Here is the input.
Amino acid sequence: MIRDREVRIIDDEGQQLGVMATSEALALAQQKGLDLVEVAPTAVPPVCRILDYGQYKYELQKREREQKKKQKSQSFKEVRLAVKIDVHDLQTKSRRAAEFLDKGDRVKVTVRFRGREISHANLGRDLLDRVAAELAEHGVVERPPLLEGRSMYIVMGPIEKRPEKNGSTIGDAVAAKGQTVPPIGATAPAAAEAPAQQGP
Here is the structure.
């Protein structure tokens, strides 16, 4: 029920009829055999449309169903990290995130802060940035690091058209070469470094 004395009216053809008394708007809707529906209750004055309420409700439900279908078509996975995560645990979590992205799922990578860790939120941000860099071949960052309460997270989406590679994940590719994944932040082995340039 519309309680306001005046409303702004849009008719059944989408034309704006301006502001009029609610009783006048109701009478106009009844003349057309339609309903008066409040579509913007927070506006001043509220905006109402003259339309078939049954059809309007059907269209709303149809849109909701379509949105739900789109949400179900792409799963949403979460990988949780701790600020002081062990190197091997981080490798395992990154591998899982890469697998999710390769399957077409979106991934939320979350860092949880405990106790006084929250005062060092930059450590969580650095960790998320490093994980995102590791997963760059598998996904793209859709939402940069965001702090909510005692958690900070990023959202990554799969790369839609990614050329196929021999290894399906970071871990598989490294295992195929018989190498171990260096800890995040570690420097490369001396053998992998470029030879120093000799002077003239």
